[in-house]
Amino acid sequence: MFPITRMRRLRASRFQPLVRETELDVKDLICPVFVDETIREPVEINSMPGYFRFPLDMVADEAVCISELGIPALILFGIPQEKDEAGTHAHGDDDIIQKAIRAIKSEADEPIIITDLCLCEYTSHGHCGVVGSTHEVLNDPTLEILGKTAVSHAKAGADIVAPSGMMDGMVGAIRRALDDNDFRDLPIMSYAAKYCSAFYGPFREAAGSGYSFGDRSSYQMDPGNSDEAIREVALDIEEGADIIMIKPALPYLDIIYRVKKKFGMPTAAYHVSGEYAMIKAAARNGWIDEPRVVYESLLSIKRAGADMVLTYFAKDMAKTNL
C-alpha cells in the first residue's frame, strides 16, 4: 500500500525498457498488397488514403520495398481482368495471383508470400463461394474450387495459403488438396473467426469485391458471438490449420485473447480496412496524432495475444524504426 508501494517508481523513462510487458516489432507485421490486372499505373484507393492497387509489372518492386523495410511477409489480393459466377480466374495457372507470385519470386526470395484464398474477388456476384439458383451460397461445391485454387497458388510458389471464405470444411479440403499434390509442407493460415463486420467497407472498393445481392451473414460470424469463435477455431485446428486468424482486430480483442489462451496456436489478427480508414480520416482532420494512435492500436492487438498483425499501416510503422 502507498506510501510503501509507489507504482510510478518504474515509470521513469530509463526503467521502462526493463519492465515493458508487450513489444511491437516490425517482424510482427504482415503487409497487404493488391495487384490489379486491369491497370497500368498504381491507383490510390479512395476510401483508404495513401494505399494503392498495383499493376502486375510493379508488384515485385512493391514486394522488394516491403522486404527492405524489414517486414517479413505480405499477403496478396488479386483483381482479375474478368469475373464469372464460378470464380474461374481464381485458379488458372496464368491468372493474376499466380502471375504475381512468380513475378515476386523472380526478383527476391523475401518476403514470405501469403495468398488470400477466397472467391469474392473473382466472382461476378461478389460472394465467397458458388451461388445456387435461389441466391444461396453453396458450401460443399465451393470446397473443390478452393482446393484447386490453393494448389495453383502452391505451384506458382506461394509460401502460405490463407483461406478466408468461412466455408465449413474449407481447411480440411485445402489440406487434402495440397497433400495430394505433394505440398504437404505448405502451411495454412486460416481466417478461422471472421466476423460479418461493417469494418470491411473500404476493402470492397480496394479489391473490387462488393456483393450484388444479400450480405455475407450466412457464412461470416455474428458480431455478438464469442463461444462460436472458439468452436470455429477448434474445427480449423482439427482440420489442419497451422496459423489461425481473427478478423477484424480491434472490435474483437476479447476473441484474440480467448483464442490465444485456449489454444496456444500461432495467432494472427487482421487490422482491417475500416480501422485504417477511420484513423486516416481522424488524422487528416487534425483530431489525433496518427503515428501514436497506430502504434497504440497495433500494440493493443499484440497485448491481446496476437503473434502477428496484418495491417495497412505495416510500411508506415516500419519506417518509424520500431
From TrEMBL:
Q: Which CDD domains match?
A: ALAD_PBGS
Q: Which PROSITE patterns match?
A: D_ALA_DEHYDRATASE (PS00169)
Molecular function terms in GO for this entry? porphobilinogen synthase activity; zinc ion binding
Question: Where is Mg(2+) bound in this sequence?
Answer: 232
Please give the InterPro entries that the UniProt record associates with this protein.
ALAD, ALAD_AS, Aldolase_TIM
Which Gene3D superfamilies does the record associate with it? Aldolase class I
Residues binding Zn(2+): 118, 120, 128
Pathway in which this enzyme or protein is active: Porphyrin-containing compound metabolism; protoporphyrin-IX biosynthesis; coproporphyrinogen-III from 5-aminolevulinate: step 1/4
- A Pfam family assignment: ALAD
- Give an example GO biological process: protoporphyrinogen IX biosynthetic process
What are the binding positions for 5-aminolevulinate 1 in this chain? 204, 216
Q: Which domain of life is it from?
A: Archaea
- Which of the seven top EC classes does this enzyme belong to? lyase
Reactions it catalyzes = 2 5-aminolevulinate = porphobilinogen + 2 H2O + H(+)
Active-site residues (renumbered):
194, 247
Record's keyword terms, sorted = Heme biosynthesis, Lyase, Magnesium, Metal-binding, Porphyrin biosynthesis, Zinc
Q: Where does 5-aminolevulinate 2 bind?
A: 273, 312
User: Is-annotated flag, keyword Cell inner membrane?
Assistant: no
Reported EC number(s) for this entry are 4.2.1.24
Q: Name one GO cellular component term.
A: cytosol
The UniProt similarity line reads: Belongs to the ALAD family.
Quaternary structure and interacting proteins, as annotated: Homooctamer.
Can you name this protein? Delta-aminolevulinic acid dehydratase
Q: What is the lineage of its organism?
A: Archaea, Methanobacteriati, Methanobacteriota, Stenosarchaea group, Methanomicrobia
